[in-house]
Amino acid sequence: MAKERKSHGKPIRYELKENPTKGDTILETADLVVTSVATAASMSPIPLVGEAAGLVLEILTIIQDVQDNKDQFKQLASHAYQLVARAVSACSPYGSQRDLPSPLRTDLDTLIHALKPVRDYSAKKLQRGWIKRVIFRRHDEQVIRNYYNEVKNGLELFNMSSHIELRQGQAEIIKRLDAQAQASSKANSEISLQSPHSPYPPSSVTNTANAYSSPYDSPFGPGFPFNQVSSPHYPPSPPPQPMFNHGDSYNSGNVVVTNVMNSNNDYSNNVHHHYSQDYPRPRRGPAWKQYR
Protein backbone atom coordinates (compact mmCIF):
# COMPACT_ATOMS: atom_id res chain seq x y z
CA MET A 1 0.00 0.00 0.00
CA ALA A 2 1.46 3.32 -1.06
CA LYS A 3 1.09 6.81 0.30
CA GLU A 4 1.45 9.72 -2.11
CA ARG A 5 2.97 13.04 -1.09
CA LYS A 6 4.33 15.97 -3.05
CA SER A 7 7.61 17.80 -2.81
CA HIS A 8 8.54 20.66 -5.16
CA GLY A 9 5.35 19.92 -7.07
CA LYS A 10 6.41 16.32 -7.80
CA PRO A 11 4.68 13.34 -6.24
CA ILE A 12 6.79 11.29 -3.85
CA ARG A 13 5.85 7.72 -3.05
CA TYR A 14 6.58 6.10 0.31
CA GLU A 15 6.31 2.47 1.13
CA LEU A 16 4.65 2.02 4.52
CA LYS A 17 6.85 -0.19 6.65
CA GLU A 18 5.49 -3.00 8.76
CA ASN A 19 7.64 -1.80 11.69
CA PRO A 20 7.92 1.99 11.44
CA THR A 21 10.68 3.74 13.30
CA LYS A 22 10.13 5.60 16.55
CA GLY A 23 10.71 8.92 14.82
CA ASP A 24 8.09 8.20 12.17
CA THR A 25 5.57 7.20 14.84
CA ILE A 26 6.24 10.39 16.80
CA LEU A 27 5.80 12.51 13.70
CA GLU A 28 2.57 10.79 12.69
CA THR A 29 1.19 11.13 16.22
CA ALA A 30 2.24 14.77 16.44
CA ASP A 31 0.71 15.43 13.03
CA LEU A 32 -2.58 13.88 14.15
CA VAL A 33 -2.63 15.79 17.44
CA VAL A 34 -1.74 19.11 15.86
CA THR A 35 -4.36 18.53 13.19
CA SER A 36 -6.93 18.08 15.94
CA VAL A 37 -5.67 21.22 17.66
CA ALA A 38 -5.81 23.13 14.39
CA THR A 39 -9.39 21.94 13.83
CA ALA A 40 -10.39 23.05 17.30
CA ALA A 41 -8.57 26.35 16.82
CA SER A 42 -10.32 26.96 13.50
CA MET A 43 -13.65 26.65 15.29
CA SER A 44 -12.49 29.13 17.93
CA PRO A 45 -13.76 32.70 17.60
CA ILE A 46 -10.20 33.96 18.20
CA PRO A 47 -8.25 34.28 14.90
CA LEU A 48 -4.82 34.45 16.58
CA VAL A 49 -5.21 30.94 17.99
CA GLY A 50 -6.15 29.49 14.61
CA GLU A 51 -3.20 31.22 12.95
CA ALA A 52 -0.73 29.83 15.51
CA ALA A 53 -2.10 26.29 15.16
CA GLY A 54 -1.87 26.52 11.37
CA LEU A 55 1.81 27.54 11.59
CA VAL A 56 2.66 24.54 13.77
CA LEU A 57 0.86 22.22 11.36
CA GLU A 58 2.87 23.61 8.44
CA ILE A 59 6.14 23.15 10.37
CA LEU A 60 5.34 19.50 11.11
CA THR A 61 4.42 18.88 7.48
CA ILE A 62 7.75 20.32 6.31
CA ILE A 63 9.75 18.36 8.91
CA GLN A 64 8.46 15.06 7.54
CA ASP A 65 10.20 15.82 4.23
CA VAL A 66 13.48 17.04 5.76
CA GLN A 67 16.26 14.48 5.51
CA ASP A 68 18.91 16.02 7.74
CA ASN A 69 18.70 17.59 11.22
CA LYS A 70 15.43 15.80 11.70
CA ASP A 71 15.85 15.31 15.45
CA GLN A 72 16.40 19.02 16.06
CA PHE A 73 13.35 19.88 13.96
CA LYS A 74 11.24 17.38 15.89
CA GLN A 75 12.20 18.93 19.21
CA LEU A 76 11.44 22.36 17.83
CA ALA A 77 8.05 21.26 16.53
CA SER A 78 7.22 19.53 19.84
CA HIS A 79 7.77 22.72 21.83
CA ALA A 80 5.86 24.74 19.25
CA TYR A 81 2.93 22.33 19.53
CA GLN A 82 2.94 22.54 23.35
CA LEU A 83 2.94 26.30 23.11
CA VAL A 84 -0.05 26.33 20.75
CA ALA A 85 -1.95 23.79 22.86
CA ARG A 86 -1.38 25.97 25.91
CA ALA A 87 -2.62 28.99 23.98
CA VAL A 88 -5.78 27.16 22.88
CA SER A 89 -6.49 26.11 26.48
CA ALA A 90 -5.91 29.62 27.83
CA CYS A 91 -8.16 31.29 25.24
CA SER A 92 -11.04 28.80 25.41
CA PRO A 93 -12.98 30.67 28.18
CA TYR A 94 -13.21 33.85 26.08
CA GLY A 95 -15.93 34.35 23.51
CA SER A 96 -14.11 36.70 21.15
CA GLN A 97 -10.73 38.26 20.56
CA ARG A 98 -11.95 41.52 22.06
CA ASP A 99 -12.53 39.76 25.37
CA LEU A 100 -8.91 38.62 25.62
CA PRO A 101 -6.84 40.28 28.35
CA SER A 102 -4.09 42.50 27.06
CA PRO A 103 -1.20 40.29 28.35
CA LEU A 104 -2.69 37.19 26.71
CA ARG A 105 -3.12 38.98 23.39
CA THR A 106 0.50 40.12 23.57
CA ASP A 107 1.65 36.55 24.22
CA LEU A 108 -0.29 35.29 21.20
CA ASP A 109 1.29 37.93 18.96
CA THR A 110 4.73 36.96 20.27
CA LEU A 111 3.98 33.29 19.59
CA ILE A 112 2.97 33.96 15.99
CA HIS A 113 6.07 36.10 15.37
CA ALA A 114 8.22 33.26 16.75
CA LEU A 115 6.60 30.54 14.62
CA LYS A 116 6.64 32.37 11.29
CA PRO A 117 10.47 32.40 10.94
CA VAL A 118 10.58 28.70 11.80
CA ARG A 119 8.02 27.91 9.10
CA ASP A 120 9.85 30.06 6.51
CA TYR A 121 13.24 28.61 7.38
CA SER A 122 11.95 25.03 7.20
CA ALA A 123 10.42 25.62 3.77
CA LYS A 124 13.64 27.27 2.55
CA LYS A 125 15.74 24.39 3.83
CA LEU A 126 13.53 21.85 2.05
CA GLN A 127 14.09 23.60 -1.30
CA ARG A 128 17.87 23.19 -1.12
CA GLY A 129 19.72 20.58 -3.08
CA TRP A 130 21.72 17.89 -1.34
CA ILE A 131 25.00 19.76 -1.90
CA LYS A 132 23.79 22.90 -0.12
CA ARG A 133 22.29 20.81 2.66
CA VAL A 134 25.68 19.21 3.30
CA ILE A 135 27.46 22.55 3.20
CA PHE A 136 25.06 24.34 5.52
CA ARG A 137 24.50 21.43 7.88
CA ARG A 138 26.36 23.03 10.83
CA HIS A 139 24.80 26.38 10.15
CA ASP A 140 21.33 24.84 10.03
CA GLU A 141 21.87 23.15 13.38
CA GLN A 142 22.74 26.48 14.99
CA VAL A 143 19.74 28.22 13.43
CA ILE A 144 17.40 25.43 14.54
CA ARG A 145 18.85 25.57 18.06
CA ASN A 146 18.22 29.31 18.21
CA TYR A 147 14.63 28.84 17.07
CA TYR A 148 14.23 26.04 19.60
CA ASN A 149 15.43 28.22 22.47
CA GLU A 150 13.18 31.06 21.36
CA VAL A 151 10.09 28.85 21.23
CA LYS A 152 11.00 27.21 24.55
CA ASN A 153 11.36 30.58 26.24
CA GLY A 154 8.05 31.65 24.75
CA LEU A 155 6.41 28.53 26.20
CA GLU A 156 7.84 29.21 29.66
CA LEU A 157 6.77 32.85 29.58
CA PHE A 158 3.32 31.89 28.33
CA ASN A 159 2.88 29.35 31.14
CA MET A 160 4.14 31.85 33.70
CA SER A 161 1.78 34.58 32.56
CA SER A 162 -1.12 32.12 32.50
CA HIS A 163 -0.34 31.04 36.08
CA ILE A 164 -0.14 34.67 37.17
CA GLU A 165 -3.52 35.43 35.60
CA LEU A 166 -4.98 32.31 37.22
CA ARG A 167 -3.68 33.34 40.64
CA GLN A 168 -4.97 36.87 40.18
CA GLY A 169 -8.37 35.48 39.25
CA GLN A 170 -8.41 33.24 42.30
CA ALA A 171 -7.39 36.13 44.55
CA GLU A 172 -10.17 38.28 43.09
CA ILE A 173 -12.74 35.52 43.65
CA ILE A 174 -11.61 35.03 47.27
CA LYS A 175 -11.78 38.80 47.84
CA ARG A 176 -15.34 38.96 46.53
CA LEU A 177 -16.41 35.99 48.66
CA ASP A 178 -14.95 37.62 51.79
CA ALA A 179 -16.80 40.86 51.03
CA GLN A 180 -20.08 38.98 50.55
CA ALA A 181 -19.58 37.08 53.82
CA GLN A 182 -18.91 40.29 55.74
CA ALA A 183 -21.97 42.00 54.23
CA SER A 184 -24.17 39.00 55.07
CA SER A 185 -22.88 38.89 58.66
CA LYS A 186 -23.51 42.63 59.10
CA ALA A 187 -27.05 42.33 57.72
CA ASN A 188 -27.84 39.41 60.05
CA SER A 189 -26.59 41.34 63.09
CA GLU A 190 -28.72 44.37 62.18
CA ILE A 191 -31.81 42.19 61.73
CA SER A 192 -31.29 40.50 65.10
CA LEU A 193 -31.02 43.90 66.82
CA GLN A 194 -34.15 45.32 65.17
CA SER A 195 -36.37 42.24 65.54
CA PRO A 196 -38.87 42.30 68.48
CA HIS A 197 -38.63 38.53 68.77
CA SER A 198 -34.97 38.47 69.62
CA PRO A 199 -33.79 35.17 71.16
CA TYR A 200 -32.05 37.16 73.91
CA PRO A 201 -34.42 38.45 76.69
CA PRO A 202 -34.12 42.05 77.85
CA SER A 203 -31.99 42.77 80.84
CA SER A 204 -33.73 41.81 84.12
CA VAL A 205 -31.54 44.06 86.27
CA THR A 206 -33.34 47.27 87.22
CA ASN A 207 -32.83 49.98 89.76
CA THR A 208 -35.25 50.20 92.67
CA ALA A 209 -35.18 53.98 92.39
CA ASN A 210 -36.87 53.69 88.99
CA ALA A 211 -39.71 51.59 90.42
CA TYR A 212 -40.58 53.91 93.33
CA SER A 213 -40.77 57.67 93.11
CA SER A 214 -39.69 58.23 96.73
CA PRO A 215 -38.29 56.17 99.58
CA TYR A 216 -41.65 56.35 101.37
CA ASP A 217 -43.41 54.60 98.47
CA SER A 218 -41.20 51.55 98.90
CA PRO A 219 -42.95 48.59 100.61
CA PHE A 220 -39.91 48.21 102.85
CA GLY A 221 -40.10 51.62 104.45
CA PRO A 222 -37.75 54.59 104.49
CA GLY A 223 -35.06 52.62 106.26
CA PHE A 224 -34.48 50.37 103.26
CA PRO A 225 -31.39 51.20 101.15
CA PHE A 226 -33.22 52.85 98.30
CA ASN A 227 -30.51 52.86 95.64
CA GLN A 228 -29.72 49.17 95.84
CA VAL A 229 -29.84 47.40 92.47
CA SER A 230 -31.96 44.27 92.49
CA SER A 231 -34.18 42.13 90.29
CA PRO A 232 -37.87 43.06 89.99
CA HIS A 233 -38.81 39.39 90.14
CA TYR A 234 -37.10 38.81 93.48
CA PRO A 235 -37.59 41.81 95.88
CA PRO A 236 -35.06 41.99 98.68
CA SER A 237 -35.97 40.85 102.19
CA PRO A 238 -36.30 43.44 104.99
CA PRO A 239 -33.12 44.32 106.85
CA PRO A 240 -32.36 41.90 109.69
CA GLN A 241 -32.88 43.11 113.29
CA PRO A 242 -30.19 42.43 115.87
CA MET A 243 -30.95 39.63 118.30
CA PHE A 244 -29.01 41.11 121.19
CA ASN A 245 -29.30 44.80 121.96
CA HIS A 246 -27.68 46.29 125.04
CA GLY A 247 -30.44 47.38 127.37
CA ASP A 248 -33.23 46.72 124.83
CA SER A 249 -35.75 43.91 124.65
CA TYR A 250 -36.79 42.03 121.55
CA ASN A 251 -40.10 40.15 121.88
CA SER A 252 -40.51 37.05 119.78
CA GLY A 253 -43.47 34.96 120.78
CA ASN A 254 -43.56 34.33 124.49
CA VAL A 255 -39.81 34.39 125.12
CA VAL A 256 -38.07 37.51 126.38
CA VAL A 257 -34.30 37.69 126.26
CA THR A 258 -32.60 40.40 128.29
CA ASN A 259 -28.91 41.12 128.07
CA VAL A 260 -27.35 42.71 131.13
CA MET A 261 -23.73 43.73 131.43
CA ASN A 262 -22.34 43.84 135.00
CA SER A 263 -19.54 46.01 136.32
CA ASN A 264 -16.92 43.31 135.65
CA ASN A 265 -17.73 43.47 131.89
CA ASP A 266 -19.09 39.90 132.03
CA TYR A 267 -22.19 39.09 130.14
CA SER A 268 -24.96 37.08 131.76
CA ASN A 269 -28.09 36.01 129.94
CA ASN A 270 -31.23 35.82 132.08
CA VAL A 271 -33.93 34.06 130.19
CA HIS A 272 -37.38 34.42 131.75
CA HIS A 273 -40.11 32.24 130.42
CA HIS A 274 -43.44 33.96 130.65
CA TYR A 275 -46.29 31.64 130.08
CA SER A 276 -49.49 33.17 128.91
CA GLN A 277 -52.94 32.28 130.08
CA ASP A 278 -53.28 29.75 127.25
CA TYR A 279 -50.49 27.68 128.79
CA PRO A 280 -51.08 27.58 132.62
CA ARG A 281 -48.36 26.42 134.98
CA PRO A 282 -48.68 22.63 135.56
CA ARG A 283 -49.87 21.62 139.02
CA ARG A 284 -47.75 19.53 141.29
CA GLY A 285 -48.79 15.93 141.33
CA PRO A 286 -47.36 12.51 141.97
CA ALA A 287 -45.16 12.74 138.90
CA TRP A 288 -43.80 16.08 140.07
CA LYS A 289 -42.97 14.73 143.53
CA GLN A 290 -41.26 11.71 141.95
CA TYR A 291 -38.82 13.83 140.02
CA ARG A 292 -38.10 16.38 142.77
Report on this structure.
- The protein is mainly alpha-helical and 292 residues long.
- It folds into two domains: 2-184, no CATH class; 241-277, no CATH class.
- It has helices spanning 22-42, 47-63, 70-91, 102-126, 130-135, 137-194, 208-211, 286-291; strands at 2-7, 10-15, 206-207, 229-230, 250-252, 255-261, 267-273.
- It has a three-stranded antiparallel β-sheet with strand order 5-6-7, with no helix packed on it. Strands 1-2 form a two-stranded antiparallel sheet.
- Strand 5 (250-252) and strand 6 (255-261) form a beta hairpin.
- Helix 2 (47-63) runs antiparallel to helix 3, helix 2 runs parallel beside helix 4 (102-126) and helix 4 packs antiparallel against helix 6 (137-194).
- It is elongated and about 95 Å long.
- The model is unreliable at 12-20, 202-213, 226-234 and 246-278 (pLDDT under 50).
- Residues 282-292 have a biased composition (Basic residues).
- Residues 185-212, 224-249, 263-292 are annotated as: Disordered.
- Residues 233-242 have a biased composition (Pro residues).
Low-confidence stretches: 12-20, 202-213, 226-234, 246-278
Count of individual beta strands: 7
Radius of gyration: 53 Å
Average pLDDT score = 61
Q: Helicity, in percent?
A: 40-55%
Q: Gap between N and C termini, in Å?
A: 149 Å
Question: What percent strand?
Answer: 5-15%
General form: elongated
Largest sheet: 3 strands, antiparallel
In spatial order, strands of the major sheet run 5-6-7
Q: What is the count of distinct domains?
A: 2
Q: List SSEs in N-to-C order.
A: EEHHHHHHEHEEEEH
Helical stretch count?
A: 8
Structural class: mainly alpha
